[in-house]
Structure formats: C-alpha cells, structure tokens
Amino acid sequence: MIVSDATLDEVRTRGFAMVPDFIPADRLHAAQEALWTIFPRPADYFADPEAHPKFGKSQFAGIRLFPYDNPALDCLPVLPGLVDAAERFLGGEDIDLYKVELWAKYAGAIDYDQPHHRDYGNHTLVVPRLDRPQLTTIMLLSDVSEADGATRAVPLEHTHDIPLSPRNLTGDALREHEVALTGTAGTLILYQTHVFHRGANFEAADASRFIIMTDFKRRGQRWTGKMAWPDQAIRPGWSEALAAMTVRERDLFGFPPPGDDYWTPETLAGVQARYPAMDVTPYAQGDL
Fold first, then answer.
1. How many domains is the chain partitioned into structurally?
2. By CB atoms within 10 Å of each CB, which of 40, 174, 192, 244 scores lowest?
3. How far apart (Å, rounded) are the C-alpha atoms in residues 11 and 5?
4. What DSSP character marks residue 4?
5. Sign of CA dihedral 159, 163, 166, 169
6. What does the alpha-carbon distance between residue 208 and residue 176 come to, in Å, rounded to a whole number?
7. What is the pLDDT of residue 95?
8. Domain region containing 27
9. 284 found inside a domain
10. 269 falls within a domain
11. Which of 104, 122, 105, 67 is nearest to 275 (CA)?
C-alpha cells in the first residue's frame, strides 16, 4: 500500500497518523504465525504466567531486535510502501533504516503505564531539528483497542509551547488531549520523535499486544541513530535476511552500494563467502 500525501502531511502537522490495512493480508498472516517462534501464544502465556518470568523484568523485556531468523518477520521493515513513505517524508532516497524492534506485551506481566515523553532521548545525541525530522513507525501485528495497551499520543497543536527539553513530563496535564493509537492488525502508525506520547496499561486481564517498530532518518546525521547494525550481523538469521533483500533494501541498513570504492575483487569474494545465498552480481560493477 502507498501512504498518501495527505497522511504524510498529517504526520507533519499533527505529529502522527494511522493507515489501516497497510500490511498485505498474506504477509500479515505469515508474520502473525511467525510471532510464536519468538513469543508464547497468549493462551499459553496466560495459562501459566509464572512460566514466562522474563516479561516481568521491565516494560521493555518483550522487545526483540532484528533479525528474527524468519522471512515473514524480516520482510516487514523493508515493505515497499513503508520505504516509499519514509523517502517521501524525509525528502529523498538518501535515508537510513536505523532501528527495528519487535515488541510483545502481556497484561499483568508488569506495570506498562508511562509518563508523557518524547522518544528522541535515545534516538539522537542532541534535540530534534523540527524541519529535519526522523520518522518512527509502528505496525500492529494484533488488534489493538484502547483496552489493549494502545499508545497514547498528544497532537502537536497542544504542545507547541513546550520546549524541546526536558523530554519527559510529570503530571496529567496532557491527558485530556491524548489520542489512543488503536487499530486492527495490519495498521501502520507513523509519528515524529518530538511527539509527546506514553505507554498504557491493559484493561483486560488476558489481553496482549504485538507490534513491530521501524524507524528512518536522513543519512549523514552522525548524531542520530539507535542500533549499530554490525553489532547484529553475527546473530542467527542475519545472513539469510540480508541475502533475501534487494540492493536498495540493503542500502537502507548501510550496506555498500554498487559502484562504491569499497568493492574490489577481494572484498567481493569475501562478501560472497560471508553471504553465500546473496547475489553479489550487482556489486561487481565499476573499476574492480
């Protein structure tokens, strides 16, 4: 699905927007089935929560980093419509995909309530420059109602007068303005890192929520990022995930593009040996 210009304008002016039915139905179904290779099914979790104590260690204990050693999940961060939206929002193809996190939450595992905050604290060394935004995204892999721990976001119109720092607010002053980011599985949520939002608790004892978060930034902003992809490159599934990508999709992770002076006969042979399933032919260009 192509995200409309009107939706991207809403992200710029309101701070966030939602796109229902963004993930194609077949890919959504495959991704949902793949979740259970990483997380317990809700029925299994709630049958014996004490058998899964790790989810109670912190609010973020349910986060798993890319890759997932499963094509059904590994393809989601580079869905063509998502990349296209990031390019158009950020102003061109020269962008980085700088974070991918899969996140599971189970009611009662821990207190998920949060104060209103801005995400830029661990996305940049400085503060956002509002005319050069980052794009953060959430794709819902389960239905999320207000009772299912939906993220609460505050439209920018209510926070224009609040300085960029500090990024955390105490008290309930913004709660009357917040919007619950709800939707059916497959919904895409886009928002900016200077938008005030918060996590919320579940209202049903047997509720759960599953999402994947993928974030993009303009290339060249050394002070901005979150994950160092080389640090993930020895994890199971990385070779397979990278081999399945197109040249453009690898570029989003910082892989050297065709024509870069990195490529020599020696490096070409080495990369082919490291990623046996990858077609390295497109990189065998230029003066090698």
1. 1
2. 244
3. 10
4. P
5. negative
6. 25
7. 97
8. 5-235
9. no
10. no
11. 67
How high does pLDDT run on average in the chain? 95
Quick one: tokens of 91? 């102003």
CB atoms within 10 A of CB 262: 12
Q: Give the containing element (helix H, strand E) for 217.
A: strand 208-218
Distances (CA, A) of 156 to 41, 134, 160, 178, 217: 37, 15, 6, 10, 20
Give the C-alpha separation, 143 to 183, whole Å.
6
Rounded Cα–Cα distance for residues 223 and 29 (Å) = 37
In 35-86, which ranges are E strands? 63-65
Residue of 75, 97, 95 lying closest to 245 (CA atoms): 75
User: Would you state the torsion angle of the CA atoms of residues 145, 112, 210, 157, taken in this order, to the nearest 10 degrees?
Assistant: 60
Residue type, 252: L
Using the structure block, give the residue that is written with the tokens 């917040």: 178
**Has residue 286 got a pLDDT over 60?**
no
Phi first, then psi: give them for residue 119, nearest 5 degrees. -75, -10
Per the DSSP assignment, residues forming a β-bridge with 100 are 214
The residues, any chain, with a CB within 8 Å of residue 274's CB and separated by 6 or more, are: 239
Residue 251 included in any domain = no
Task: Write down the pLDDT at residue 288.
Answer: 34
129-158 pLDDT per residue, tens? 989 999 999 999 999 999 999 999 999 999
Amino acid letter for position 160:
H
Q: Is residue 116 part of a domain?
A: yes
Q: Which burial class, exposed, middle or buried, applies to 226 when counting CB atoms under 10 A from its CB (0-12, 13-18, 19+)?
A: middle
